[in-house]
Amino acid sequence: MRNFRRSESRFTLFTAFTILVCVLGVFIFILISSITISIGVGKSEVLLPSRLNEGNKKPVYFEWKKDQLVSHPSHDTLNFQKNLSEIKTWNESYDYIKQVINADKKYSYLFSKIMQRKDSLFLFVFIRQSGFRNFREFLGFVQNKIKVDIGYELYEENTRIKVRK
Fold first, then answer.
1. Who is most buried in 12, 22, 106, 152, counting CB within 10 A?
2. Is residue 29 part of a domain?
3. Is residue 6 domain-resident?
4. Ramachandran angles phi, psi of 65, nearest 5°
């Protein structure tokens, strides 16, 4: 019979290295998870006016919610009491929009300024999903009645919008 001797006891760093790699992996996972969560919370889209300039025209920003028109960056709000998509004719909806705008001093002044400077200003509207149906009426009003250039884009309800001056 053969005698098996125990070889000299060797100390290897393989097990310590394996534990270290596992701990490092967990640390990286926690770090990536916390970064992902912090990016997703309160996410917003920041728009620089230079990004939207059309030639020499400057944008005037608005946000269209379900039944509200909000100017940016001042956040002045114009509320519409009626659902614009339920008004029977285009002319009735245009008259109602004009009446609501003229009833608010800030918006009346803002729209008169925009109409006077059609060649140097255009409207840009951020549309929330809840206001998409009503926005068609406002779009028709801007294009057909006050005849100002307009741009628009659809945004999710929970996306915060920040406009820098």
1. 152
2. yes
3. no
4. -100, -165
